[in-house]
Amino acid sequence: MERGLTLLVAALVAHLSFSNAQVDITRSGCGVTKLCVETPDDCAPDGTDNCLFTSVIAAPVAPSGAMLSIELRGDSSGYIALGLSADASAVTTMLFICASSSATNTFFFSIMTVNSADGVLTPATEPVSDVNGMVTGDVIKCTFNIMSVDAPTLSIILGTGTTNGATIGPFNAALNSGPLVLANPASNVVATAGPNVTTAAAPPTMPNSGGAVQPHAVLLLLSVLSLAVMLRGGSCG
């Protein structure tokens, strides 16, 4: 049974509940046109195995911000969530929640902040648009746009939680990406490289060029000269 939503206008969202949407999420474009973060590594969001996955496309917004186009997919009978944090030491993280109502198995969307110290969730608002979501069994998929973000580097947190009807339960983080440059789709390629990703090897140490003398060669030359002076001095007399 599939239930979902479509919201085509920008709004300050705290909680929305709608129905009837189709959402298709794949790895196509990961590392090239979109930044992808997932657990387990390289899992397939369009498959049947457990996969908590998000992708981000950042488009510049004047004067200095960006609009983030988000895909989010995960396995949960409650909710899945994308967290964004500008600072590892930040007290709160903004959570964008795609959820299934435990009473009706219908999709709803919510935004909250979570306190890193005590895990307390607080309803929040943020301009979003084009929210689409669907629930198929325990698989939740959604897409949405975050209208304006002014931090070029953010940490992505993925996690899940429970719902009681439309009430959001505690957030359980499953992955923290660490700081990522969201406008660079390949900014985490090395960190999340799997068997199908080739990472660049460290550049080899090149021989000295241009006639410059390396420090160890200078020390060796000075030692040789000192020894020669001592030998000449000892032969005088």
From TrEMBL:
The keyword Hydrolase does not apply. Transmembrane segments: none annotated. GO terms for biological process: regulation of glutamate receptor signaling pathway; regulation of postsynaptic membrane neurotransmitter receptor levels. Residues 1-21 form the signal peptide. The keyword Signal applies. Keywords: Signal. Coiled coil: none annotated. This is Ferric-chelate reductase 1. It comes from Zoarces viviparus (Viviparous eelpout).
